[in-house]
Amino acid sequence: MKLKFNGFLVLLLVLVAQLTFAQERAVTGTVSDNTGMPLPGVGVLVKGTKTGTQTDFDGKFSIKASSSQVLVFSYIGMKTQEVAASSTSLNIKLKDDSVELEGVVVTALGIKKDEKKLGYAVSKVTSDEITKSGEQNVLQALAGKAAGVQIIGSGGTPGASSKIIIRGANTITGSTDPLIVVDGIPIDNSTTQTAAGDNPFNANLSGINNSNRALDINPNDIESVTILKGPAAAALYGARAGNGVIIYTTKKGKNGKGLGIDFSTSLSIDKVSQLPARQGKYVQGDYNLTGVPTYAVNTPQSWGPSAASLGMKTFDQPGNFFQEGITNTNNISFYGGDEKATFRASYGNVTQTGMIPETGLKRNTIRLAGDLKLSEKWKAGASMQYTHTTNTLAQNGSNTSGVMLSLMRSPINYDLRNYKDEFGNNTNYFASYDNPYFTVNENPATSDVNRALGNIFLTYSHAEWLSLTAKAGIDTYSDARKQIYAVSSNGDGLGGIGEVAFNSITNKDYYGDFIATGLLPLKSEWLKINYTAGLNLRSTQYLDIFSRGKGLSVRGLYNLGNTTELYASNYEENTISRAIFAQLDFDIKDQVFLAGTIRKEWSSTYGDNVQSAIFPSGTASWILSNTFGWQNFVKVNYGYGEVGIAPAPYRTVSIFGQPSMTDGYTDGLTFPYDGVNGMALGGRLGNPDLKPERVLGHDLGLSTKFFDNRLSIDLSLYYKTSKDLLIDVPLAQSSGYSSQYKNAAELVNKGIELEVGYDIFKKSNPFQWNINANWAKNENEVTDISGGLSEISIESAFASIGYYAVKGQPLGSFYGTKWQRDANGQKIIGANGIPLLDGETGNLGNSAPKWTGGIRNTFSYKRVTLSALLDIRYGGEVYNGTLARLNSIGISEASADREKTYIVEGVKADGTPNTTPITAQQYYRQVVGDGGGAAEEAVETVNWVRLRDATISYDFNVKQFPFFSAAQLSLTGRNLWLNTNYKGVDPETSLTGAGSRINGLDYFNNPGSKSFIMSLRVSF
Q: Where would I find the TonB-dependent receptor-like beta-barrel domain in this sequence (predicted)?
C-alpha cells in the first residue's frame, strides 16, 4: 500500500511539473526610449523570481515566462515599467525618470505634481514634438500642438518673431505675451523695435521685424514644455502671469554607466510658401486721355498695353528674386553621472541663409547643467547658458525700402536685377521706391546678441515635513543693431543723402526665491497636507541707446564721423518687485484634492497709494474612479484664480520730454530746433493710484481614460474677466494734459478646449497608431470702457483702417471705411456706377479665429515611425492691404481681366438694381482697390488647413557597431501643404510682429516658408 501511494505521489508531481513547464514559453520583444530609440542593457526580470536577462545592442530581449507572470523592465535613468507577459511579442517604451514620469508635470515655481491631482488644465508638449516641428524658435515650435494656444508668425525670414496668445487676449494696451520660465527661472521674451526718440509714428509698421528673445533658446536642449493656461494654474506668479505661463524644462544629466554622447545634424531647404498671384500680360503704363493703354516709365502703374503687342520681354520678378534658404543645424551633448552627481554639457550651432537674399541667422549656444548631492540632506545644482545670435534682417513692406513693396508692385517688363547705375545709385522702375535688390545689398539691418542665462539652487532636506531651497537666476543680454540707408536710398525719407543708425539695447533681469516645502506630520491615513511658502525678489535694468547720422560725406563709409547731422536719444528703465507666497495641498483618501495659493506682491510700478496687490487661487479635483472603484479613470476639477499684468513703468508720475509736432505724413518738427533745445511736461498726467490689471478666471474640467488608458479625453471650460485694464483716458486740454493712464476698462474671455488621445492598437501589437487631437474656441468681448468712451485705439495702424477696442465688441476689431448699404445690406451705387462710401467708419471684423484645432497621427512599425500634424484655423479676419494695392495699380492676377466693363452688384439711390458699367481700371482701383475703395473690401475671412509638420524616421540596427547605442535618420517636411482661401502670403502672418498689439495686418508682408529637412541623430 505504501509503495502504491508513493508511486501515485511521484506521478502526481511529474504531472504538475509538466503542466507548469508547459505554461512557460519564450517572450520576445524590443525596448526603446520615449523617442523610439532602442535601449541596450535594459534589465528584464520575471517578477517574484530570479529569472532575468538584458536587452542586446538592438534593444531586443528573449525570456521564458508564463502568461500569468509579469515582466519588470528597469534601466538607470528611466522609469521602471511592469508589463504582463500575456503576449509572446512585446514592444516596450521606457520614459525618462524625470519630468517625463507618467502623469508628472512641472507647475508654478518649478514644483512637480501628479497631473491627475491638479484642479486646473495644463497642456504638455514633449521634446520629440519640438524637434519634429523643424522650427528654430521654441515658441513657433508650439504651433498647433495645444488647445487654446494661438501662434502668430511674422514671416519666413530668419529670426522672424513669433507671437503667442493663450485663451484670447487679456489686456488692451499691454503685451499679450505669456511669462516664459526656463528651469524655474522667468526669462525675458520681449520683442523690441528700434525707434528714435524723435520718431512720431508707430515703429512697428515700418523698419524691420525684430526677433523675440525666446529665439535664443536651443530647441534641442528642451526636455518638455508645460503650458499653464488659466489664472488658477498661474496665480503663484502674480502680476507676471496675466497671459499664462509657458514652462520649459531642459535636459539634465543621467545616472548611468560611463559617458553618454548624443549628436545630431540636420539640413533644411526653405522655399516660399505662398505669394499673391500677379498678372503676367500687361506692362508698365496707364490709360491716356482717350482711354487707350499707353506704355510709360517711372510709374508704379501696370495699366499699360500687353507685352506681346509691344514685343517686350517679361520677367518673373518673384521667381528671380527669392532663393532657396538653407539651414544647417548641429548639436552635441555629453552627459553622465552617478548617485551623487549628474552633469550635461551641450553645444548647438545654427547657420541659416534666408529665402530673401542676403538675410540670415547664426546662433551658437553652449549650455552646462549639473546636480550634486553634498550629503543626505544637502543638494546643490546649477545651469549656465551662453548664446551668441547674429541676424541680418529684411525691411518690412510698409516702407519705401521694403523688399516686398517694390518687388510685388514691379511691372513685368522691368528687370529688377539691374539695381544700380555706374555711380552705385539706386535704379528702379519707380524712383520713389528702393529696388529690392538694392535694399538687401545696400541697406542691411543687422543684430548682434550676446546672452547669458544662469541659475543656481541649494536645497536642505531636514525631514519629510521640511525642505528649504534657495534659488537665484540671472538673465542678461546685449543687442547691438545697425541700420544702413545707402546714398540714393528712399528708405529714410531724406531724399537719398544716406544714413547710418546704431541701436544698443542692454537688459539685465535678476530673480531669486527662498522656498520652504513639506508634508505636515498629521499621522492620518486619510488626509495628507503639503505646504509651500516662500519669498521672491526680482529686479530689471533696461537701457536703450539710439544714435543716428544723416548725410554721408563719403559713399559706403558708415560711421557717425562721416555724417553731417547727428542725433542721439536714450531710454532707461529700472523696476523692482518683491513678494511673499504660500500654497496648501490637501489629499483626502487619494480621491479628493484641494489646493489654495496666495501671493502678495509689491512693485515699483504700482502707484504710491496702492503699493501692493494680492493674487489668490483655489482648486479642487475629485477622482471619481478612485471613490467608486471604476476601472476607467474619471476626474472632475474646478479652479478659480487671480493673476495680473503690472502697469508700465514711470506712469505714476508726470515726466518731461522733448515736444514734437507732425502733420501725420512727415516726421514733423522736434527739438533741438535751429540749435535750441526744449523740454516740457509730457501730455500724460501721472497717476499715483495705479494698480495692476487683474485677470479673474474660472476653470472647469473633465478628464477621462478608457480601454486600459488607450483613450484619454480632457475637456475644459473657462471664463475669465479682465478688470482694471490700463488705458489712456482723455483729459480736458485746459488741465495742461491730454490724457491720464488709468485702470479704466474691462473685458471677458470665455471658451472651451478639448484634447483627445487614442492608441488604436494595444501596446503589444507590433504596428502602432496613435491619434492626438485638440480643438479650442474662444469668445472675447470688451464689456466696459470708463471715462465716457465707447472705443479706444489699441495701436496706431493705417489711415484707412485701425485696430480698436470697442465696447460690446471683440477686442482687436478692425475699424475702417465702409460702403453705404440699404436696409437689405446691398451696396448703394452712385450715378457713375461706383459704390458710395459711408460717412463713418465701422467694424470690419476681428482678427481672432473662430476656432482652432490640431490633429497628429503617429504610426510606427518595427523601426519605422511616421508622424504628421494637421493644423486647422477657422475664421478670423486679415486686412489684405497688399491685394488692395495690387488691384489698384493693375498688377494683381484678377486685374488682367480688363478687356471688359464691370457692373457692381447693388442698388441705385432709388432702390432699383444697378446697371451702370464702369471700366476695369475703375473697378480694380476704386471698388476692390485702395484708390478710393472702402477698406472693407480688403478684409478677408481666413480659413486654413495646413500640414504643419510630417516626419518619417528609421531607427538603425546598431548591433554590429558596438560603439553606437542608437542611430536614427529622419526626413521632415514643415508647412509642405497649405489649403487656404486667403489670396495673399501665408496667412500665418503679422506685419507688426510680436512686439505689437496688432494682429492680422498684411501690407506687403514678407512671405512664409515651407521646409524640407533631413536629420541624423546618433548616440554613443
A: 413-976
